[in-house]
Structure formats: C-alpha cells, structure tokens
Amino acid sequence: MINLDEQQNIFMRIAEKLPKRIEVYAIGGTAMMFLGLKDKTLDVDIVFLNATDRKIFKDTAKLLDFEDTSAEIVYGKRDNAPEMVKISDVRLDLFLFKIISSYFSTGMQKRAMQTHDFIGKLIIRIASPSDILVMKSATARQKDDEDIISIIKENKANWEIIVKESEEQVMLGNESAVLSLGTRFERLKNEKKVEIPKEVLDKLWKILKKQTGKNKLKSL
Amino acid sequence: MAQINKFELAKKLKGFNTLKMIESALNLDRTKAIYLIHKLRKEGYVKTKYLSSKKRIYYISPKNVLKGTSYTEVINKQSPIKIMETDEYNIYGREVSIEEALIYALNKRSVRYTVALLGLFRKITSWSKLYNIAKKDNLIREVVALYDVARKILPKLKRMPKRFRNLAKPKKNESYKYIIDGFKSMNFEDIEKKWKVYIPLNWDDLSEYEGVNK
Known about the structure:
Chain A is α+β, with helices and mostly antiparallel strands. Helix content of chain A is 53%, strand content 20%. Chain A has 10 helices and 11 strands. Chain A has helices at 4-17, 28-34, 51-63, 72-75, 106-111, 129-137, 143-153, 159-172, 177-192, 198-219, and strands at residues 2-3, 22-26, 40-41, 43-48, 67-69, 83-87, 90-96, 98-99, 102-103, 114-118, 122-126. In chain A, strand 10 (114-118) and strand 11 (122-126) form a beta hairpin. In chain A, helix 6 crosses helix 8 and helix 8 runs parallel beside helix 10 (198-219). In chain B, the strands form 3 sheets. In chain B, strands 1-3-2 form a 3-stranded antiparallel β-sheet. A two-stranded antiparallel ribbon of chain B has the order 4-5. In chain B, helix 10 links the parallel strand 6 and strand 7 (197-198). The longest helix of chain B is centred in the last third of the chain and has 14 residues, at 140-153. The chains are: A alpha+beta, B alpha+beta. Strand 10 of chain A pairs parallel with strand 5 of chain B, so a sheet runs across the interface.
C-alpha cells in the first residue's frame, strides 16, 4: 500500500529526472487520493495519451531503481494491459489511452479539472470522480465496490455524466460498459443499500435495450 | 482515541471548524477535542486560521496533506479580493511567483478572477518576468489594459516600465480582443480604446476595493 505522502514523493523524484515535460492522467485509487477520497492505494494508475511519453516516463522510473514487472499476473493476457514497473511494494501501472476495457475518452480528459504540477515537468491531471466510478464499474473486483460507494457517499457522483459517459464508452467500442454499470449499481443498491436514483437505473436499462436492439439488427 | 481512523475523521470534519463545533460534532469534552486536533494536525489534515476577532478556526480536509501550493492560494494571499477555488492547480517543488499567478488568473477568463488579479499588480516585483509570461500566452495587451484599470483603483501603484507599455501598443490593423467573450465595459472605454482590449468590468464590480466609489 502507498499513502499520499509517498505517492507525492515518487512523482517528485520522477519529475526531477524527466528529460521533458510530460502530461498524464491519474485514475483509480491514485486519483481518489488526490481528491481526498482515499488515504492509501495498492498501485499508482496513470494514463498516457501517447506511447513516447509512456516510454520516457517508464525509463525515468527505471533510473530510480523501479524494475519491470509483468502485467499478465495482475491483468491476465490482454491487449490493453498496462506496462508496469515496481519498487519494493509500490507498483506503477502505466496505461495507454485504454484501461483494460474502458477508454479514456475526450470527455474524461476534459473533465479532469484538478491539476498537480511537479516542478513544471510532470503534469498530472486527475480524473473526475464520476469518470473514476465509470472505470471502476467495468472491473469485476470486489475491492472497487468500496471505492464506488465512497464516491457516491461523498456526493461526488454526477449521475448525468455517469450515464452519458457509459453511452460514450459503448460508442468507443466498450460494448459492455452500460451493462457492467447497470449490474454493478443494481447489486450495490440491493446488497449494500447504496442510494442510487431509480431514474439513473431506468436510463441505463433503456440505453441497454436500445443497444441490444441495434446489435440484433446488425446480426440479421 | 488511538483506535480512530484519522483519515475518516478528517473526512467527517471536512471544512471550517471551531473547537466548539468539533466538541459537539464528536460529543467530546474540550480537552479531548484539543488532543484530537493535535493528532489530526500531526497527520497534516489541519490548517489553522484566525478570524479578525483573533478566534482560531481549523480548516480540516484530507487534501491538506498535499504539500503543494495552488495558484488560488497565492492570489488569495496577495490580493485583497478573495476567490473560491473552482478547479485546483497545485504546484510542487517550486515557488509560485505573483507574475505567474496574475497570468493564471487572467487565463481563467472570469469576472471574479479578473477583479482579484488587479490587486496583484501592487505585488509585482519583476516586470520583465510578467512581460515574458504574458508574451508566451499572447496576453500583453490585456495585462497593460488591466494595469491601467488597477491604477484607477489602487493608490500609489508602482509604475509599469515604459518599454512594457510601448511593446504592448496595438498596431493599426489589430482588432479588439475580449478578456471574457462578449463582455465590454461601460466605464473604462478610454482604456479599451487605447489598448484595443475590452475590459469585462465596470465600477460596480470593483466596489470591494477600498475607497472605490462609483
């Protein structure tokens, strides 16, 4: 586990060694720590929009004794698995635009309003809580339930954005986005009594119905 | 007390608190509340501020642990007009200059930020630095025009170097620029005409500055 202080120190040390200015996006637990929604995280999740920046970042981390580690153990054999580097129990997951099945859409990029600037070299934009929720709902991990609940309980979930973004994810090719989100919400509502507005669920199922209708037409 | 998760507590007490508020929120006596603040402060969750009555208030937030400085903090420290942070921009590992903060405020393209940035002209220490940062964002004319507004409201404001002003002069074929799209002034037309920059302010907007009367 890594806390906010340690996370800041890592970013600062990397920024000091970076040969050029790099802009990245923080997602998952990393973003939640910057947003004050979580105090510790298992791994540092970063999204890059181009491969060159990711390579530069990774090479710089290696200068600080981070070592390559296989993403297969954590994410299985997937095309969109991140590149990973590790030092003691701190792991950096470096994604490139796609985060397993989710896309870091232009909407998500625009909504990343909070910025952390490490000596002008490493600029980290923080994904919005609603987008973190959409990305977390795409995973099957139980531990993500807690994070989703925390976002909702802290009133950081913008339902309109969540519904729109899940639609956008489908458009980008993440076909199961609406289904995953809807099922996750239903489960959290029923099992953990999380307050999720009925209209949101209705909207999601309506979108899903439309989506399956289209798919049926396509298969014909 | 040792069992308390301080992060959860910081989340619970998030915002401005007096000692009394903490006592009643957690149902503690005064001694225990003071001890709790001490514990939270040790973890970096507490920032202490003083009211004009010298009464202590505690700003508690899980985000206080972040070591950086935000532009808004610099603006609020240096300008008599305070602003609410809308989107945070935190800087780590270097000091934020007033010149940078002024251009940041200008780039926000909002009335409130524009009003607040006028107060920063008083604190400018390096006009050449301000010129270079403004030039990078193509904001030289806007800076000079707003400086002229600031001169009208801030007594004994340091003079801007002539060279800065000369370099900012608009060319004949240059068109007017907006600081905020569609916003023109009814009171500072002379400045607007001189620098070909529409000022998004009227006297009414500046009433918070001491001594400003319509």
